[in-house]
Amino acid sequence: MESWTDTHVWGWAIDPARPHEPLSVELWDGETLILRTRADLWRPDVAPPGGAPGLLCGFNIAMPQHLLIEPRHILHLRIAGRGEDLANSPLVLDNPRPPLRWDDVAALLPKLEARAAAATSAAEMRDLVGPVMATLGAMLPRYTELAAQAGEDRTQATIDLAFSFSDRLGSILQDFCARYPRLAFPDAADPEVSVIIPVHGKFAYTYQCLASILKALPRTAFEVIVVDDASMDETLFLPSVISGAVLYLRSPRNGGFIASCNAGAAAARGRYLLFLNNDTEVRDGWLDALRDTFAEQPDAGLVGSKLIFPDGSVQEAGGIIWRLGDGWNYGRGSQPDDPRISYMRDVDYVSGASIMVPRPVFEALGGFDTHYSPAYYEDTDLAFRIRQRGLRVLYQPLSELVHHEGITSGTDVKGTGVKRYQLVNGRKFFDRWRDALSQHRLNGDEPELAKERGITRRILFIDETTPTPQEDAGSVAAVAHMRAMQALGAKITFVPADNMAHLGALTQALQRIGIECLHYPWYWSLEEVIRKRGAEFDTVFLHRFVNAFKYAGMIRSAMPKARIIYSVADLHHLRLEREASITGSPAIAKEAAVLKAREVTALAMADQVIVHSTHEAAYLAGAVPEHQLNVIPWTVKARPGAASFADRQGITFLGGYRHTPNVDAVTFFVDQVMPHLRTLLPGIVFRIAGSHMPDSFHRLAAPDVHLEGFVPELGEYLGRQRLMVAPLRYGAGVKGKVLESLAHGLPCVATTMAAEGMGLTHAEDIALADEPRAIAEAIAWLYQDEAAWQRLRHQGLMFVERFCGEAVIQAKFRTLFDRLS
Which candidate, 282, 434, 472, 543, has a CA 20 to 30 Å from the CA of 780? Predict the structure, then answer.
């Protein structure tokens, strides 16, 4: 350390043995770790031993102003993990303006001044001030509430009150409110989530935590409950600088973390309880990601966040509990975007610094168990009790926050502070759960397996690029198949073989539901993935022909023990043969013949083959043995729109237009079907929806032909239409547009090609027609006959449940897994 002021500390630090590797430097206030940062600023004046000057070894630390709560601080600068002070450390920091003096607070009650003046010991003053603080803490929130109801400003009303008793105290409060501007939270008449923040002192951290929630404002309706565990600092005046859906509760005496959390839960109105440490700073999406997990995982009982150190490294990404009850913060010290810690997964526990639990579950369990009072292991015990009830304990990495570890309770487990209960309660926890823990590994034994101990199969899933389920049916099928295999206990590791980039929200959509995504810069290619991690996978899932043809041989060679599943998606050569017959193109016919030979080769490399329709299964009967052939569509959930027949208008087509059969279908419909339809139903509007619309469609636009383009909210869009049309003239496989139509309760008029292989019945589940006039007549019939429309709507929804319901698809994969075994 070279120099310091009351606002900054600067200097440099190197390890002579490794001078070119920047060190981490820690700032301690006594025995409390304040922050950790890297000494990686360029210092042209510092030379390594025997070398030329110039190293990345400098640091410049902005002094945390929240330290200035005592008249004097003894600050230490240390190399992280070594416990030795740097040169010129420790340093003594005198604070010329401590923000609060207890005798100023005592001046609120003049009758106590004489007793305060006569006090001869700190203990005597503590007995005197304690009741005053408790009384003030109980009265101030009510005072600020009544002032606000009367139209007064909360902050100014508190300052005026202080000045009425003591100019000194008024000045302190005025300065306090200037340093901590008002935090105005949105009102919440019916909060979905109650954020419970237990606090004991450290007001600056509490304020910083609350400010971060406002900065990263959730879309979910929420309230905040601050439970003040008899703080003796500025926390007392928190009600004067907050407004909106924030409840301040103060305990008259220090009862500990567990008591505070349970008190906050008892006052909560939300359907979900989110327990949050006050020494945290939340990031965008933190709360919503936790809440969304419960919506996506109905069997979730507890969900926790990714915790980040102030220096940007990971503090915890879910926890492991070893056989003797000792815990492990998995991912500690790694980078936040490391693929190993960036996907949702089941864990032994998640740190109570940020966890969400349904209020009925928490109440049924009696809250945090006071067996562990005042603190430590209560969050781990809660996780084990929730899992004992058959619910899942999940880590959700899309919920991120910075955690200033050790601020509240310190870091010394052998001292006299609250932290010592970590050892005491660790023994209590082990005694309670020793039978469950007997199946766990010993400390440090294969943490990569211990971090997800419930996995029964490890599958490497390969596709060309990250799925875009809003754009193409193949992506919908890929995600649905991954989820079905997850439900059977498989861990899915996804690799986008032809585009290893992290694609933002698309990649996160997989990580959010528990799929590990390997991507650049952690991995540069599929070959690198197989070289580094191939041995851990017992199964490889090749989605689509192009991946099976390119990679099946390499996988057979490099991963001889892995079994290969090949999901055909659709038979490309069959689609091309049909296109050639429609267009009369010799070039397409030749391409189909070449592709057929390659597809047969890919089929021969697989242990199990998946097709989506019975037609494809029959077509491949001679090429693939029956015990290797599986007819598995993808999971589609029935989700009918509420709009009535009368409230719907128009017809639509939906597709991705990089797929040529969809372009042909739209062109065919406008050119050959619409002339008949205009005669039968004058004024009917045809809407063309979907992604990557070609320029050629602009010539099709007309007053009754609308180019809608990409539709982000499919349910809302389909809920306004009266019919779906699927006039495909060639193609192969199950058509996603038909399934989506039926699943949304939208009757469909389709060609026999579009309905191929699904077992749909004309005039019962769907309306079928192939010739332009017949298609127009089917549309006119169903568009005007409400009884028929209602019948096909109902039968279509029933068909979806029979053909591709969740239980149906899982049963089919269970059979496939049995065959692999």
Answer: 472
C-beta of residue 706 within 8 angstroms of C-beta of residue 685: yes
Comparing CA positions, the residue from 762, 748, 759 lying closest to residue 808 is: 759
Q: What mean pLDDT comes out for the span 340-357? A: 96
Rounded distance, CA 131 to CA 109, Å? 11
* Residue showing tokens 């008449």: 189
Residue 762 DSSP code? B
How many C-beta neighbours within 10 Å does residue 762 have? 13
Structural tokens at position 155: 């902050």
Residue type, 620: L
Return the structure tokens found at 712: 């982000």
Average pLDDT over every residue of 390-395: 97
What is the DSSP track for 559-589? -TT-EEEEE-SS-HHHHHHHHHHHH--HHHH
Instruction: Give CA separation, 253 vs 117, 128, 349, 367, 449, in Å.
Output: 25, 14, 30, 20, 44
What confidence score (pLDDT) does residue 128 get? 65
Residue 210: name the closest of 192, 195, 194 by CA.
Answer: 195
Interior angle at CA 71, CA 65 and CA 72, nearest 5: 85
CB atoms within 10 A of CB 548: 28
CB–CB of 545/572 below 8 Å?
yes
Of the CA atoms within 13 Å of residue 372, those in its CB half-sphere come to: 26
pLDDT in tens, 434-464: 999 999 999 989 888 899 988 999 999 999 9
CA distance 329 to 322: 11
Considering all CA atoms of the chain, what is the largest pairwise distance in Å, rounded to the nearest integer? Answer: 108
Q: What is the pTM of this model?
A: 0.78
765 to 284, 667, 748: CA distances (angstroms): 45, 26, 9
- Is the pLDDT confidence value at 348 over 60? yes
How far is it, in rounded angstroms, from Cα 228 to Cα 244?
18
Rg of the chain in Å (alpha carbons): 33
pLDDT over 90 percentage in the chain: 60
Cα–Cα distance list, 741 to 484, 634, 691, 757 (Å): 22, 15, 17, 17
Could you tell me the CA-to-CA distances from 571 to 75, 589, 603, 656, 657 in Å, in that order? 70, 14, 11, 18, 18
Task: Check if the beta carbon of residue 212 is closer than 8 Å to that of residue 282.
Answer: yes
Axis-axis angle for helices 572-583, 660-668 (nearest 10): 30
Of 523, 734, 498, the C-alpha closest to 610 is 734
